[in-house]
UniProtKB/TrEMBL annotation, chains A, B, C, D:
Homotetramer. A motif (Important for interaction with partner proteins) lies at residues 170-175. Keywords: DNA damage, DNA recombination, DNA repair, DNA replication, DNA-binding. This is Single-stranded DNA-binding protein. HAMAP family: SSB. InterPro entries: NA-bd_OB-fold, Primosome_PriB/ssb, ssDNA-bd. Residues 114-175 are annotated as: Disordered. Residues 128-138 have a biased composition (Gly residues). It comes from Mycoplana azooxidifex. Pfam families: SSB (PF00436). The keyword tRNA processing does not apply. Plays an important role in DNA replication, recombination and repair. Binds to ssDNA and to an array of partner proteins to recruit them to their sites of action during DNA metabolism. Residues 139-157 have a biased composition (Low complexity). One of its GO terms (cellular component) is nucleoid.
Length: 175, 175, 175, 175
DNA sequence: TTTT
DNA sequence: TTTT
């Protein structure tokens, strides 16, 4: 479909230490639970009320997974930009079930830490020098699948490397 | 939780004519199915592939519901801004099930038609004068539950009266 | 124009204590300078580089202005959602000049504090009952110019009374 | 700064055919003027009013520039995602002047055509197979600085190629 | 002028 | 200068 946009922006706190799994060919996948909440004053009682919403975030990007692995802990406040995806699966009785997740994969996915936690631990990017639009803190823009060749015009763009921090859209990652 | 954001932005097409229900006290609720899709060229086969994602959108806002009722038809292209909400329910066997929906309710919810359809049908807002940030087309910003008392602090905020919700725009505020 | 969107989302730090002015009829206007920055590793030197961008934010909404006045100080980290506006003015030599600002006014404007500062200072909303979608912290959704007439179609939209602008949230709407 | 976000989202119409320039080393830069507008009913007069805002968009990304060059014409409706940037320059009298633009460069930049125009002209991406999150229409996600080397781990990611559609952040492009 |  |  021409002209389609599917974007989720969350700022919230991580409910538990992230789980990192690996695909058979070794790529990491991180799962996060993020809480957002809104509060308001009840019109009748006048008392403050709060409602929390829990979101499941799945990170397919290698670079972002590294950030998650090294820095994201229970309680961390994150900025997340990803896309909605509803996954179909079967429960034990064989019935179709659907789960909607926020997927960080490929373009226009971002994960940025909004509190100081996890910082100062050296270069979280290991030997590579990923670009980062999020500043000095653990932040990572998943800009797809950047090759690492330095001979390309733009691979010379500092960061580069990064190479692989986005899994392929058409890969069949079991999850 | 201080500092929380829960925002979904979609541009996609409506899969079927919307359903409008009513609550017991008469407020409308509209349900929409919206498709977004991405396409890419497969690295191996070289052929173009496309993946469509279907989203369930629930509109609680009366003004937005009117726009939906009058203008949104199967095939319409919409811009939607809302929030994620996961609703728990029980299936016929009593098992817990969860459905994630994009809710348009309260502030920061928007629905704008991006194609010409549905326009020109007179003032869809009837006698009311809702504001619209989306221009001349059927567009509606769901600004939630506006104070009904004229003594409320914010109703004093110029504009007031929905018709003028951009009221400041034509004021000559010196700054 | 049908189907128009003009939205800016910033997360950044406030460069100086905000200035609050008042219009002749007493409405407050707050001005903020917000810095965002991106950093990356230089491709040649390998050293980390950083570029800071400064944004001028103008808050026309009374409720948001109160939040700014009471809580936002130099250094605060904010989430801002507003619209771009370019203002024309004349310099002392009479030449046309243009300034582009992020305006928080009307719907779909939000200001949320992302650090703990400013919290715990009692109810910043005083006697007023603004809604807040941002949780317990100083947060405010600028929903513009709410209808002051209780006969308006949208004031009938449940919630009403700003205090409860998420009113539907605690309603038990069957769907 | 850790945890910074600078994002602009526009849906609007192009005011004039785009201008494409080239840097000394041959990379294209496209300039667009985009109009967004909001309309509302005046509270006093009851008549409909409209205000148009004009935005300057600068596209540094090669892939996006190609899309602009081939498909974007005066009147086209676009979805744009970029970042704010204020550029300092000197007028003829040597006075400092500032211009704020929406820059499409690097991560998290997107340009998608929302009307049918320009479509059907074959594969606008030439021999390359860029990834695209925007569907079958002329759409392009600027995911940073992708190298063109096919030996890179991720260049195998379908689309890839694309190579160079983002100029470097620290390049000194005169404009 | 912020922040890391 | 767009669009409705």
């Amino acid at each position: 479909m021409a002209g389609s946009v599917n974007k989720v922006i969350l700022i919230g706190n991580v409910g538990a230490d992230p789980e990192i799994r690996r695909t058979q060919d070794g790529r990491p996948i991180a799962n996060l639970r993020i809480a957002t909440s809104e509060s308001w004053r009840d019109r009748n009682s006048g008392e403050r009320r709060e409602k929390t919403e829990w979101h499941t975030v799945v990170v397919f990007n290698e670079g972002l997974c590294k950030v998650v692995e090294q820095y994201v802990k229970k309680g961390a406040k994150l900025y997340i930009e990803g896309a909605l995806q509803t996954r179909k699966w079967q429960d034990q009785t064989g019935n179709d079930r659907y789960s909607t997740e926020i997927v960080l994969q490929g373009f226009n996915s971002t994960l940025t830490m909004l509190d100081g936690r996890g910082e100062g631990g050296g270069d979280r990017r290991g030997g590579s020098d990923f670009g980062s639009s999020g500043g000095g803190g653990p932040s990572y823009d998943d800009y797809g699948s950047q090759p690492s060749s330095s001979s390309s015009p733009s691979s010379s763009r500092g960061g580069s490397g990064s190479g692989s921090f986005s899994r392929d859209m058409d890969d069949d990652i079991p999850f």
